[in-house]
Each structure stands twice: as structure tokens, then as C-alpha cells.
Design brief:
The protein is an all-alpha fold. It is built from 14 helices and no strands. The protein is 52% helix and 0% strand.
């Protein structure tokens, strides 16, 4: 698996269809938790370059980092036109515009290391811009966003492989190679565009759903790549993202979603979050938090009515453990130590978890 895939095995934000009544709202969070978020956002703001982008260590993955960071600021409640971080968001949108190609690709194929995975950056930026588009009321800017997103969707669909997934680059550029994490990034970005009113061909979604089904082993986990075969075994990280992608379609009673969740639950115990850091732990909890927030207090019990109470995943339990970990591990500057790709990536993952309950984006509202 290429270094980009090993380090940045993410999938973008999507509208999770939740199973539970509302838990705590933002105004009910403790002052300590709000301070952790404030410090994290202020640190992330300082990492933005003048032209509006963020980047990983060594100047890498700028389009991907910009999409992730821009969405984190949208989750705070600011928009492109108002709020504490409106200027930050506006500059990020401008960067995406300036680095979009006539083909519809958002990003630059020949940027440092981005050529190894330009579909990651394309997906995250498309997801970010879909959120912005939903809030934009300036007619001229909305028209430009609509045109950009229509071309971006077309590029994604043309990049899909014959098996229905996506690889680090388009099927044409990557010899029809596909893998799970990029596939989920694309399908969730496409769903966000569709939720915002952009036309997305149903065929593309149907094909990737079949792809994920074909990637599922008898044990219930998702493998890394259908193109590479089943030799590598199940990947908990990709399986977690798969659950989120299924929930995004409201299919939380789908047999595949249940199968994936049954596989993941004992592999990533909730009561050890923060204590048991492992490879891709940021990514895993980035998605696990979204899934468990969606389940709420009784969603898991509804999916698995015969499960033992001690086995059931609940948001209150997860929230207690992980928020404590994030509070204790935050550095004085406001960031967190993380994987080699750099602290911007880690901060984006953790700020996503911390801000789920804010409900600023419709896709995260219960």
C-alpha cells in the first residue's frame, strides 16, 4: 500500500442519518470542552497559508488538507459570509477555485506527492465545497460553485474503475486500480453534492455499493483492495468508514452495515479509546465517533436487540472516554501529536470529533 494510503486512509464527512433522540447540544458542553475546541481551531487557523491552503508535513497534500480543515471551520458554525472564521473559510474556497482544473479535478496532479493520490484531495475538497454551496446565497458565487461541483462530480464518475471503486488516481491514470478508503471518500463526497442539489448519477452510487459488498469477507470486514484480492485480510479502519458511508444513505438496517459493525465492535473497544493508540487510530476514531454519535444511546440495541447491555455502543460512553483523552493530550499550542503526515491532519480529525454535537452543518444534525 503506497505511503499516502497508509497514512491518509480517510473518507470525507457526510450526512449521517441518526437513530437516536438528541443528546447534548453545543451549549450544554462543558467550558473545558469548549476551550479545547477554541484552542484547536485557533491553532489550525494559524496554519493556513496566505493563499488559503493548509498542508501536511513537507508541503504535501495541500488540497486534501484544505478540504478537511475548511470543513472543520464550517462545523464551528461560521460560514463563508459570517462568523468568527468566515475569512478563513472564504480563503479556503478561493484556493479550491484557483486550483481546480478544466477537467473537473480539484487539485493539481503534479503537486508534491499529490499525484500519488489526487482523488483524496479532490474528494475532500468536493465535500467541503458542497457544504459551502448549500449555504451560499450570492447568485454569482453560487453559480460558480454549482459549475465547479458539476464538473467535479463528472470527473469523479469518469474516474471510477470497472469494478465500481476508485483508486488514488483515476481509473485511466491508475491502470484501473481501486481501494476501499478512496472509494468511500468519493462516494461520500458525491452524496454530499447530491444532498446540496447537485445531480449525481445513480449508477455511480450503485456501482460503489456493489464494490463495497464485494470487498466484504465472511468475517464481516472490508479488505483494502478488490483489485489486489483478499490476501491482506480485513481492515478495521476501512470497515469503520464503510459503516459511515452506509449510514449516510440511511441504511443503518442494511445487512452489510450490521455485518461491518458486528466485526468492528470487538476490534476497537470503546473503553480503551485514547489508551490504545495504534496505526491509523486518528482515522479510525474520526469515523467511529461519527458512527457512534449517529447510534446515540439506543441505536445499537435496535440493530442488535439480542446483544448484551455491556456490549452495546453508546455515544455517552464513547464521548466520555474520548473527550477526556483529547483534553489531556492537547498540547499547549492547541494541537495534538499525531501520525507522520503532520499535526494539521490530526487536528482536523480531532476537531471533527469534538464538534459533532454542535450541529452547525445540516448533515450532522439529529
Amino acid at each position: 500500500m503506497p505511503r499516502f494510503g497508509l497514512i491518509l486512509v480517510l473518507a470525507g464527512f457526510v450526512g449521517l442519518v441518526c437513530l437516536a433522540p438528541p443528546m447534548a447540544r453545543a451549549e450544554e458542553l462543558s467550558e473545558k470542552q469548549r476551550e479545547v475546541v477554541r484552542r484547536g481551531l485557533e491553532w489550525l487557523k494559524k496554519q493556513q497559508f496566505r493563499d488559503g491552503h493548509w498542508e501536511a508535513s513537507g508541503g504535501q497534500f495541500s488540497t486534501a488538507m484544505t478540504g478537511l480543515a475548511g470543513t472543520a471551520f464550517l462545523m464551528e458554525g461560521s460560514t463563508i459570509k459570517e462568523g468568527k472564521y468566515s475569512e478563513v473559510i472564504r480563503r479556503a474556497v478561493d484556493y479550491c477555485f484557483q486550483h481546480s482544473q478544466h477537467s473537473g479535478l480539484i487539485g493539481e496532479i503534479n503537486a508534491p506527492n499529490q499525484g500519488l493520490g489526487y482523488l483524496y484531495g479532490h474528494g475532500y475538497s468536493m465535500l467541503f465545497l458542497a457544504h459551502v454551496y448549500g449555504e451560499e446565497d450570492d447568485a454569482d458565487r453560487r453559480r460558480k460553485l454549482e459549475d465547479l461541483l458539476n464538473r467535479a462530480v463528472d470527473f469523479s464518475c469518469k474516474s471510477q474503475t470497472t469494478r465500481g471503486g476508485w483508486g488514488y488516481v483515476s481509473a485511466k491514470d491508475g491502470n484501473d486500480f481501486d481501494e476501499g478508503s478512496v472509494s468511500i471518500t468519493q462516494v461520500q463526497a458525491l452524496r454530499a453534492c447530491r444532498n446540496a442539489g447537485i445531480v449525481v448519477p445513480k449508477e455511480a452510487i450503485d456501482k460503489v455499493q456493489k464494490y463495497l459488498k464485494d470487498c466484504t469477507t465472511t468475517n464481516g470486514g472490508l479488505i483494502y483492495s478488490l483489485a489486489s484480492g483478499y490476501g491482506g485480510g480485513e481492515r478495521p479502519t476501512i470497515t469503520v468508514a464503510g459503516i459511515a458511508s452506509m449510514f449516510s444513505a440511511g441504511e443503518y438496517n442494511n445487512p452489510l452495515a450490521k455485518k461491518w459493525l458486528a466485526y468492528v465492535r470487538p476490534v476497537v473497544p470503546v473503553d480503551t479509546v485514547g489508551q490504545d493508540q495504534f496505526g491509523h487510530s486518528e482515522y479510525t476514531h474520526y469515523y467511529y465517533a461519527q458512527v457512534i454519535y449517529c447510534l446515540g444511546e439506543d441505536g445499537y440495541a435496535k440493530m442488535f436487540p439480542d446483544s448484551k447491555p455491556s456490549e452495546r455502543l453508546t455515544w455517552s460512553k464513547y464521548r466520555k472516554h474520548f473527550y477526556e483523552f483529547l483534553s489531556k493530550s492537547q498540547l499547549p499550542e492547541g494541537n495534538w501529536r499525531g501520525v507522520p503526515i503532520g499535526p494539521v491532519y490530526t487536528a482536523c480529525c480531532y476537531l471533527t470529533i469534538l464538534q459533532l454535537e454542535k450541529g452547525a452543518l445540516p448533515i450532522y444534525q439529529r
